[in-house]
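User: Structure please.
Assistant: Input sequence and predicted structure:
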Amino acid sequence: MQGPELGDSRSRFRFIESCLGLMGCLCIGYAIWTPQWLDNRGLWFSGNDTGPEDSWNIEDIAKALEAERVFAVVAFLMSVSSGVLCLMFALCWTSQTVRSYSNTRSLLMAGQALDPTTLLLFTLVPTGFFFFLSWALFTHQHIYEIRDDITRLGLSYWLGVVGWALLLALLPIVFLAEKCVVPDILPELIKSADMWWKAPEVAHARSFSEGCHRSQHKSHPDFRRYMSMP
Protein backbone atom coordinates (compact mmCIF):
# COMPACT_ATOMS: atom_id res chain seq x y z
CA MET A 1 0.00 0.00 0.00
CA GLN A 2 1.31 3.46 -0.86
CA GLY A 3 0.33 7.03 -0.12
CA PRO A 4 -2.41 8.83 -2.02
CA GLU A 5 -1.55 10.25 -5.41
CA LEU A 6 -2.57 13.92 -5.68
CA GLY A 7 -0.56 15.03 -8.68
CA ASP A 8 -3.39 15.99 -11.04
CA SER A 9 -7.01 17.05 -10.83
CA ARG A 10 -8.32 13.56 -11.63
CA SER A 11 -6.37 12.07 -8.73
CA ARG A 12 -7.47 14.81 -6.34
CA PHE A 13 -11.14 14.33 -7.20
CA ARG A 14 -10.76 10.58 -6.78
CA PHE A 15 -9.20 11.06 -3.34
CA ILE A 16 -11.88 13.57 -2.25
CA GLU A 17 -14.74 11.32 -3.36
CA SER A 18 -13.12 8.31 -1.70
CA CYS A 19 -12.82 10.23 1.58
CA LEU A 20 -16.44 11.41 1.37
CA GLY A 21 -17.60 7.88 0.68
CA LEU A 22 -15.54 6.44 3.53
CA MET A 23 -16.87 9.01 6.00
CA GLY A 24 -20.43 8.30 4.88
CA CYS A 25 -19.93 4.54 5.27
CA LEU A 26 -18.44 4.98 8.76
CA CYS A 27 -21.34 7.20 9.85
CA ILE A 28 -23.88 4.70 8.51
CA GLY A 29 -22.17 1.71 10.10
CA TYR A 30 -21.93 3.46 13.47
CA ALA A 31 -25.53 4.66 13.35
CA ILE A 32 -26.95 1.25 12.50
CA TRP A 33 -25.40 -0.63 15.40
CA THR A 34 -25.60 1.98 18.19
CA PRO A 35 -28.77 2.77 20.20
CA GLN A 36 -28.51 6.57 20.49
CA TRP A 37 -31.44 7.29 18.17
CA LEU A 38 -34.34 8.26 20.40
CA ASP A 39 -34.07 8.05 24.22
CA ASN A 40 -31.27 5.48 23.87
CA ARG A 41 -33.40 3.32 21.60
CA GLY A 42 -32.08 2.37 18.20
CA LEU A 43 -33.20 0.49 15.12
CA TRP A 44 -33.25 -2.81 17.01
CA PHE A 45 -35.55 -1.72 19.85
CA SER A 46 -38.69 -3.88 19.79
CA GLY A 47 -40.96 -2.02 22.19
CA ASN A 48 -44.28 -0.60 21.04
CA ASP A 49 -44.13 3.02 22.11
CA THR A 50 -45.92 4.87 19.36
CA GLY A 51 -47.76 8.03 20.26
CA PRO A 52 -51.46 8.14 21.13
CA GLU A 53 -52.22 9.97 17.91
CA ASP A 54 -50.54 7.34 15.82
CA SER A 55 -53.03 5.58 13.57
CA TRP A 56 -50.80 2.58 12.92
CA ASN A 57 -52.02 -0.79 14.12
CA ILE A 58 -49.84 -3.60 15.44
CA GLU A 59 -49.50 -5.28 12.04
CA ASP A 60 -48.36 -2.07 10.35
CA ILE A 61 -45.80 -1.45 13.08
CA ALA A 62 -44.43 -4.99 12.76
CA LYS A 63 -44.07 -4.64 8.98
CA ALA A 64 -42.37 -1.25 9.35
CA LEU A 65 -39.90 -2.65 11.89
CA GLU A 66 -39.11 -5.59 9.66
CA ALA A 67 -38.54 -3.41 6.59
CA GLU A 68 -36.53 -0.93 8.64
CA ARG A 69 -34.15 -3.64 9.84
CA VAL A 70 -33.85 -5.32 6.44
CA PHE A 71 -32.86 -2.03 4.82
CA ALA A 72 -30.44 -1.37 7.69
CA VAL A 73 -28.70 -4.74 7.27
CA VAL A 74 -28.42 -4.28 3.50
CA ALA A 75 -27.03 -0.77 4.00
CA PHE A 76 -24.49 -2.02 6.54
CA LEU A 77 -23.21 -4.80 4.27
CA MET A 78 -22.95 -2.38 1.36
CA SER A 79 -21.21 0.22 3.54
CA VAL A 80 -18.54 -2.32 4.53
CA SER A 81 -17.78 -3.31 0.94
CA SER A 82 -17.99 0.28 -0.29
CA GLY A 83 -15.69 1.46 2.50
CA VAL A 84 -13.05 -1.07 1.46
CA LEU A 85 -13.43 0.12 -2.13
CA CYS A 86 -12.95 3.73 -1.00
CA LEU A 87 -9.74 2.79 0.83
CA MET A 88 -8.40 1.00 -2.23
CA PHE A 89 -9.12 3.89 -4.58
CA ALA A 90 -7.73 6.45 -2.12
CA LEU A 91 -4.48 4.67 -1.24
CA CYS A 92 -3.70 2.05 -3.89
CA TRP A 93 -5.03 3.40 -7.19
CA THR A 94 -2.70 5.51 -9.35
CA SER A 95 -3.00 7.35 -12.63
CA GLN A 96 -1.15 4.50 -14.38
CA THR A 97 -3.44 1.73 -13.14
CA VAL A 98 -6.23 2.54 -15.56
CA ARG A 99 -3.71 2.71 -18.43
CA SER A 100 -2.55 -0.89 -18.06
CA TYR A 101 -3.07 -3.05 -21.12
CA SER A 102 -5.77 -5.32 -19.67
CA ASN A 103 -7.76 -2.45 -18.17
CA THR A 104 -7.57 -0.34 -21.32
CA ARG A 105 -8.60 -3.22 -23.58
CA SER A 106 -11.56 -4.16 -21.40
CA LEU A 107 -12.70 -0.55 -21.02
CA LEU A 108 -12.57 0.10 -24.74
CA MET A 109 -14.44 -3.11 -25.50
CA ALA A 110 -17.15 -1.93 -23.10
CA GLY A 111 -17.32 1.35 -24.99
CA GLN A 112 -16.73 3.59 -21.99
CA ALA A 113 -14.19 4.30 -19.29
CA LEU A 114 -15.56 3.04 -15.97
CA ASP A 115 -13.12 5.01 -13.84
CA PRO A 116 -12.94 4.77 -10.03
CA THR A 117 -15.18 7.77 -9.33
CA THR A 118 -17.96 6.34 -11.52
CA LEU A 119 -17.68 2.99 -9.74
CA LEU A 120 -17.80 4.76 -6.37
CA LEU A 121 -20.95 6.59 -7.41
CA PHE A 122 -22.62 3.32 -8.48
CA THR A 123 -21.86 1.67 -5.12
CA LEU A 124 -22.14 4.52 -2.62
CA VAL A 125 -25.41 6.05 -3.79
CA PRO A 126 -27.36 2.75 -3.36
CA THR A 127 -25.72 2.37 0.06
CA GLY A 128 -26.97 5.77 1.12
CA PHE A 129 -30.37 5.12 -0.41
CA PHE A 130 -30.97 1.86 1.50
CA PHE A 131 -29.95 3.49 4.76
CA PHE A 132 -32.15 6.49 3.99
CA LEU A 133 -35.13 4.14 3.66
CA SER A 134 -34.40 2.68 7.09
CA TRP A 135 -33.86 6.13 8.59
CA ALA A 136 -37.08 7.45 7.02
CA LEU A 137 -39.13 4.53 8.36
CA PHE A 138 -37.77 5.10 11.86
CA THR A 139 -38.50 8.83 11.63
CA HIS A 140 -42.04 8.22 10.37
CA GLN A 141 -42.73 5.68 13.07
CA HIS A 142 -41.63 8.07 15.85
CA ILE A 143 -42.69 11.34 14.23
CA TYR A 144 -44.96 12.42 17.08
CA GLU A 145 -42.28 11.90 19.70
CA ILE A 146 -39.79 13.83 17.58
CA ARG A 147 -42.25 16.71 17.14
CA ASP A 148 -42.84 16.90 20.88
CA ASP A 149 -39.17 17.17 21.79
CA ILE A 150 -36.49 17.10 19.11
CA THR A 151 -33.74 17.09 21.76
CA ARG A 152 -34.60 13.44 22.50
CA LEU A 153 -32.81 12.47 19.29
CA GLY A 154 -29.34 11.13 19.95
CA LEU A 155 -25.95 11.07 18.26
CA SER A 156 -26.62 7.98 16.17
CA TYR A 157 -29.68 9.56 14.55
CA TRP A 158 -27.78 12.68 13.51
CA LEU A 159 -24.75 10.72 12.33
CA GLY A 160 -27.16 8.76 10.17
CA VAL A 161 -28.35 12.03 8.66
CA VAL A 162 -24.73 13.00 7.96
CA GLY A 163 -24.08 9.57 6.40
CA TRP A 164 -26.91 9.54 3.87
CA ALA A 165 -26.45 13.25 3.14
CA LEU A 166 -22.79 12.65 2.22
CA LEU A 167 -23.64 9.74 -0.08
CA LEU A 168 -26.88 10.98 -1.62
CA ALA A 169 -26.24 14.73 -1.86
CA LEU A 170 -22.61 15.79 -1.51
CA LEU A 171 -20.97 12.92 -3.40
CA PRO A 172 -23.07 13.36 -6.59
CA ILE A 173 -22.36 17.11 -6.52
CA VAL A 174 -18.60 16.50 -6.35
CA PHE A 175 -18.91 13.88 -9.09
CA LEU A 176 -20.71 16.33 -11.40
CA ALA A 177 -18.07 18.97 -10.64
CA GLU A 178 -15.37 16.47 -11.60
CA LYS A 179 -17.06 15.75 -14.92
CA CYS A 180 -17.18 19.48 -15.67
CA VAL A 181 -13.55 20.15 -14.69
CA VAL A 182 -11.57 16.99 -15.51
CA PRO A 183 -11.19 16.09 -19.22
CA ASP A 184 -12.43 12.74 -20.43
CA ILE A 185 -9.81 9.99 -20.21
CA LEU A 186 -11.27 7.90 -23.04
CA PRO A 187 -9.33 9.63 -25.90
CA GLU A 188 -6.07 8.96 -24.04
CA LEU A 189 -7.01 5.32 -23.60
CA ILE A 190 -7.82 5.00 -27.31
CA LYS A 191 -4.45 6.50 -28.23
CA SER A 192 -2.62 4.19 -25.82
CA ALA A 193 -4.50 1.17 -27.14
CA ASP A 194 -3.61 2.06 -30.73
CA MET A 195 0.07 2.26 -29.80
CA TRP A 196 -0.04 -1.10 -27.99
CA TRP A 197 -1.92 -2.87 -30.75
CA LYS A 198 0.37 -1.50 -33.48
CA ALA A 199 3.57 -2.32 -31.61
CA PRO A 200 3.47 -6.12 -32.29
CA GLU A 201 2.77 -5.49 -35.99
CA VAL A 202 5.71 -3.10 -36.28
CA ALA A 203 8.00 -5.52 -34.47
CA HIS A 204 6.89 -8.41 -36.70
CA ALA A 205 7.38 -6.34 -39.87
CA ARG A 206 10.82 -5.23 -38.70
CA SER A 207 11.97 -8.77 -37.91
CA PHE A 208 10.64 -9.99 -41.28
CA SER A 209 12.47 -7.24 -43.21
CA GLU A 210 15.69 -7.86 -41.32
CA GLY A 211 15.45 -11.60 -42.08
CA CYS A 212 14.96 -10.93 -45.80
CA HIS A 213 17.86 -8.46 -45.85
CA ARG A 214 20.13 -10.99 -44.14
CA SER A 215 19.18 -13.77 -46.55
CA GLN A 216 19.95 -11.52 -49.53
CA HIS A 217 23.42 -10.81 -48.19
CA LYS A 218 24.05 -14.49 -47.58
CA SER A 219 23.03 -15.39 -51.12
CA HIS A 220 25.32 -12.77 -52.73
CA PRO A 221 28.62 -14.34 -54.14
CA ASP A 222 30.84 -11.57 -52.80
CA PHE A 223 29.28 -11.97 -49.37
CA ARG A 224 29.92 -15.75 -49.40
CA ARG A 225 33.52 -15.20 -50.62
CA TYR A 226 34.12 -12.70 -47.89
CA MET A 227 32.75 -15.03 -45.22
CA SER A 228 34.92 -17.95 -46.53
CA MET A 229 38.23 -16.05 -46.33
CA PRO A 230 40.39 -16.95 -43.30
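The chain has a mean pLDDT of 76.
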